[in-house]
Each structure stands twice: as structure tokens, then as C-alpha cells.
Amino acid sequence: MENETNCIQYSIVIPVYNSEKTLVELVNRILTTMQTLSNDFEILFIDDCSKDRSWGVLKDLRKTDFRIKIFHLAKNSGQHNAILCGLNYASGKYIIILDDDLQNPPEEIPKLIKKIGEGYFVVYGKYIDKKHGTIKKGMGSVYHALLHHLLDVPKDLYLSNFIIMTSEVQKNILRIKCSFTFINALISKVTPHEKVANIDVIHESRTFGRSNYTSLKHMKLLLNLIINYSSFPLVSIGILGAVTSILSIAYGIFLIVNKLINPNFSMEGWLSLMVAVTLLGGATLMSIAVVGEYIRRILTEITYSQPYLIGEMEL
To answer: pTM for this one?
Structure first.
């Protein structure tokens, strides 16, 4: 963690990508909302190497308020790595995460703050009515169902990108070394389920542009989650190997019994070859599963590279 001292009340972390049209309004609405709560806050914008003028807009906004801190990543690293960068520099007692597209209304922040004040460690905003099309809503339902299964979280807990967490959760997240960053997964690793809650919030329609998360990106995200946060592929390979081996042994016994019953029954040729190949294949798959399990455990303890690189920042 880059900043170990919690000296303010609230840190608002916002990953940014191609949002030049929403940033000014977003800041104005955050400032208006936070002034009713506390002046003891900071806003951390992490520009994930946007292709538009987002960084220039952020630099102008930085000049208007000292509480705005901005980071420009050297290369596009993904939304969750951008959030991780913000968590590394956030110094608040509570950390609030929201999107840059105004679909998470800043005016809903007080609801999250009030809920976490009841003794929870993490609170997710639960959208009363998600402003997406029918097809995207359907795909989102499937995505969240798989996500709950992979992360082993209660089905009634809604996971979103509108989050408030305590600094203790933040610190525990930053201690985890992993090869793929997914904030919801990291939260589930360090937080007891009974200390995580939902609060109903409004989800506004997108005013500018369209979502950066396409169906292909959602599928890629799920595949990464399956590989990095579950043993499903390894277990599946192991089961397949075991079943293949059992079937090949059973088939071999079948051939031997037939040979004993009928001496004229031939075991030569492709029949015996099939038994040998399937038995060897099953044993190989099981061996891969065992080795893979060890590799998976190693990957949970080390990381191959820095998940993000900061090109420029103004604190």
C-alpha cells in the first residue's frame, strides 16, 4: 500500500476510460453531495489510458480542487487494475468505488455510508432497476449467477461496481498477490459474508457513449475468473481422467472375460490398442489435474508482473 496513514474520512475511487463528456458533471455532483456529509474527503481518478481527452479534462479539474488526485496509467490495464491503483493511494477511513459514466449517481453515496455505519465491512449498491436493454439484462443475470457460483457468495447478495468498504478491507485486499485482479473476488476472499450487505440504489441511464463491456469481454472475464478463482477446470479434467480410466479398465475386463468364455474371441488389433490408449489418456489427464492444482496454489501466492504501471500522477 502506497499510503499507510488513514488521515481523512472518505476516499472516492473512480476508474476512467473515454469519459471526457461526463467527468465535469460527475465532479460537480460529487462535490455537491459530499458537502452535505463531510469536507474531509478526496477523489481519486485513475485514467486507464483513455483514447479521448479524459486526461486533459482531469488535469483541468485537478486545478479547481486540491482534493482531486489524478493518475494516468502508462498502458490500458483494465477497470479492476485501475481500481487497484486507486486503492493503493486511497487514505480514507472508508473507500467508495463508483463508475465514471454517471450510471452510479453520486447522490446515492449517503445511502452506502449510512448502511456501512451499521457495522458492515463492505456494502454493495443494489440497483432497483438497472437501465440496460432486455438482452443485456438477460446476459447480466446469467453472468451474475455464474459469478456467485465461482466466488461462493450468497445468492441474495448483489455484486456491483458501486461499493463502499472499510480501510481494513482495503488493506487486506492489497496484501493479496494474484495474477488476475477482480475486486469483487478479492473482497469475497478477505471479508466474512455476514459482514457484507446490499443497499438499494438508483441506476441511471447512460447519457453519453456506450458500455465498454461487450458480450465478448464478459465471456473473457468469466474465463479468467474460472481459471484464477476456482478449481473447476482442474476438477473437471481430473473427473474426466478418472472416468476415462475406469471405463478403459472396465472394457479391458470385458475383453478378458470374453476371452475366457470364448477362446476364439480375438483381443488382438484395435480393441487392445483402444484399451491401452484410453487407459494411458485417463492417467495422463489425472496427472495433469494433480500438477495443475499445485500450480494453481502457487499462483495464488505470487504475481507474475505489476498489474498496472503509472505513467503520470498529480497528488
So the answer is: 0.77
